[in-house]
Design a protein that fits this description.
Number of helices: 6
CATH class of the largest domain: Alpha Beta
CATH architecture of the largest domain: 2-Layer Sandwich
Structural class: alpha/beta
CATH topology of the largest domain: Nucleotidyltransferase, domain 5
Largest sheet: 5 strands, mixed
Distance between the termini: 56 Å
Strand order of the largest sheet: 3-2-1-4-5
Helix content: 25-40%
Number of strands: 10
Number of domains: 2
CATH superfamily of the largest domain: ATPase, nucleotide binding domain
Strand content: 25-35%
Shape: globular
Length: 227
């Protein structure tokens, strides 16, 4: 299966092409950035596709991260994935950033628990807790740091994500410390591609995965009546 993976949900603009029938690693590129994803994404995709020596019609599916993350950033990736899928006549697959963070750690050691955490600002984190084998113990949610610690501080889990350091720094003194802390600012795009290859099309729609409303809201108090 040939998969184009796209991630613009957090602090990187990334793309990868994976062919599951080839032994070589995925062709990929990732640019760290806080903003500017819209301008960088399509040229980056073009470079990756060129390196892979493929046209869009040769793909089997397009995988894209759906959030949680930057409201503007994740919509850039979703729009690109949907557009490419429509033009190429291929399915688009949506994957959460929390699952993308956790999957490589689960694959490396299926016996341990993994806590995926993303800095949601204002003293909050997006969090999901995975048990042995990747089974969800605590579904994805947004939580204040104190609540997130209560959910995460059982045993000695691995922490991963842009919120991992927040949890590690505030870890309760009486609890066994985390076994591993990976505070990377965006998921590994190769694993987004691998998840995209394995996902069920019916269970992975390419829709934004929001856990809270955006910080910026449209003004309604001073609307001018239309004539």
């Amino acid at each position: 299966m040939r998969v184009l993976a796209i991630d613009t949900a957090l602090e990187a603009c990334s793309a990868a092409v994976l062919d599951t029938e080839q032994p070589a690693a995925a062709v990929h590129e990732s640019l760290p950035m806080l903003r500017g994803h819209a301008e960088a994404l399509m040229p980056l995709i073009a470079r990756v596709m060129d390196q892979a020596g493929l046209g869009f019609e040769s793909l089997d599916r397009i995988a894209v991260t759906t959030g949680p993350g930057s409201f503007t950033g994740l919509r850039v990736g979703l729009a690109a994935a949907r557009g490419i899928a429509l033009a190429a006549g291929k399915p688009a697959i949506g994957l959460t950033t929390l699952a993308a963070y956790a999957t490589p750690l689960v694959a490396a050691d299926a016996a341990r628990s993994v806590v995926a955490a993303i800095d949601a600002r204002h003293g909050q984190v997006y969090i999901q807790v995975f048990g042995p084998g990747g089974r969800t113990i605590v579904p994805a949610r947004v939580a204040l740091l104190r609540e997130a610690l209560r959910l995460a501080a059982a045993g000695a889990p691995a922490l991963v994500g842009s919120g991992a350091a927040m949890l590690a720094d505030a870890w309760p003194a009486g609890e066994t410390p985390p076994s591993f802390v990976d505070a990377r600012r965006a998921p590994d795009i190769e694993w987004v591609a691998r998840l995209g290859a394995a996902a069920d099309e019916m269970d992975a729609p390419p829709k934004p995965f929001y856990l809270r409303p955006p910080d910026a809201q449209a003004q309604t108090a001073a609307q001018v009546a239309r004539r």
